[in-house]
Amino acid sequence: MRTITVEEHFITPAFLAGPGKHFMNRFRDSGPAGAVIVDRLTDLGDKRVAEMDAAGIDMQVVSLNAPGVEQAEPDEAVACARDSNDWLAEAIKKHPTRFAGFASLATQAPDKAADELERCVRKLGFKGANINGHTRGRYLDDKFFAPILARAEALDVPIYLHPTAPAKPVLDALYGGFSPAVTAVFSTGAWGWHIETAVHLLRLVLAGVFDRHPKLQICIGHMGEAIPFMLERTNRVLPPQLTKLARPVADYLRQNVHYTFGGFNFTPTFLNLLLEIGVDRIMFSADYPYGSMAEARSFLQHLPVSEADRERIAHGNAERLLRL
Ligand code: ZN
After folding, report:
1. Of 58, 172, 287, 309, which is the active-site residue?
2. Beta strand extents in the chain (DSSP E only)
3. Ligand 1 centroid from CA 162, angstroms
4. Cα angle at 191 between 8 and 263, to 5 degrees?
5. Are 309 and 321 in contact (CB under 8 A)?
6. Is residue 205 a contact partner of residue 249, using CB atoms and an 8 Å limit?
7. 8 CA distance to ligand 1 centroid (A)?
8. Alpha helices in the chain (DSSP H)
9. Does the N terminus or the C terminus of the chain have fewer Cβ atoms within 10 A?
């Protein structure tokens, strides 16, 4: 069975020296496990391919690690995104059957970001873009970002909406008052990253982004970032009479969004996603190097689904959406 993972990360020297410096240094200084992660992120070559072989992963669709360039100054973001995309294109050239890419975009400069997306898709063969949440507190439903969404729709490529830490006022109000160590995890991997991403996606729906861009496809990870759990309720209490949208909220979540594992190798969470969204919009991923490829592969193998559905999740849905 072919296996394609779609939320997988790397870093470049320019990112490490620039927009990723703070985040990556914190990781590296956190101890040996953090240093191993940083080391793995820097390799997009033979070492990673050997690890993929050992875990039974055929292809990774990779993206620049969070926080990406979204929190940087516009000029730095434009330069770092372009450098990262060129760096990734070179890595893909060496292993074209093992790696594919999502573009990094300087969302601070939407027209330039749209042009960069087009360059990445048309010239470098990338499969879409990865956007790391808000851009200094602004969300993608802001009309400011419309050129990026319009170009993704026109190019018929998805935008992967990846988590980032909440903006400072949100972080202080919702996640403060604990030890720095607890706040750091509570506001990110334990809760904040995921809820932040779910709210971001709902903002896109409620702002009418998918009425304006009906063909636009968004991907989210982490088994749906808690969206499947809330879907029925949100759909019921936000009907079209209230939202003035063309369709019920659930329609957009079932027709304009794809969902990936992202290291959430939890069967009850998967079943919730499967029952709410359906098998055709679920894609395999490991969130490498934060999640274990071997664990994800074993989870996939033991999912309580038919073999045909396992194939859809393992590779078929990604092949269709990303034209792999
Ligand atoms: Zn990730």
Report:
1. 287
2. 4-10, 59-64, 99-104, 128-132, 159-162, 218-220, 257-260, 282-283
3. 6
4. 30
5. no
6. yes
7. 6
8. 13-17, 21-29, 32-42, 46-55, 74-94, 110-122, 146-155, 168-175, 180-186, 192-206, 209-212, 227-237, 240-243, 249-255, 267-277, 293-301, 307-311, 317-322
9. N
The alpha carbon of residue 145 and the mean position of all alpha carbons in its chain are separated, in whole angstroms, by 18
Please state the separation of Cα 282 from the chain's center in Å: 13
Which residues, listed in sequence order, are joined to residue 283 by a DSSP beta bridge? 260
**Of residues 191, 188, 234, 218, the one with CA closest to residue 23:** 188
pLDDT per residue rounded down to tens, the chain (324 residues): 999 999 999 999 999 999 999 989 988 888 899 999 999 999 999 999 999 999 999 999 999 999 999 999 999 999 999 999 999 999 999 999 999 999 999 999 999 999 999 999 999 999 999 999 999 999 999 999 999 999 999 999 999 999 999 999 999 999 999 999 999 999 999 999 999 999 999 999 999 999 999 999 999 999 999 999 999 999 999 999 999 999 999 999 999 999 999 999 999 999 999 999 999 999 999 999 999 999 999 999 999 999 999 999 999 999 999 999
**Distance between Cα 129 and ligand 1 center (Å):** 13
Residue 102 Cα, ligand 1 centroid: separation in angstroms? 12
Measure 264 CA to ligand 1 centroid, in angstroms: 11
Compute, in angstroms, the gap from residue 262 CA to the centroid of ligand 1.
7
Residue labelled with tokens 């296996």? 3
Distance 163 CA to ligand 1 centre (A): 7
**In sequence order, what are the beta bridge partners of 260?**
283
Exposure class string for 179-200: b at 16+ Cβ within 10 A, else e = eeeebbebbbeeebbbbbbbbb
Say whether 251 is catalytic: no
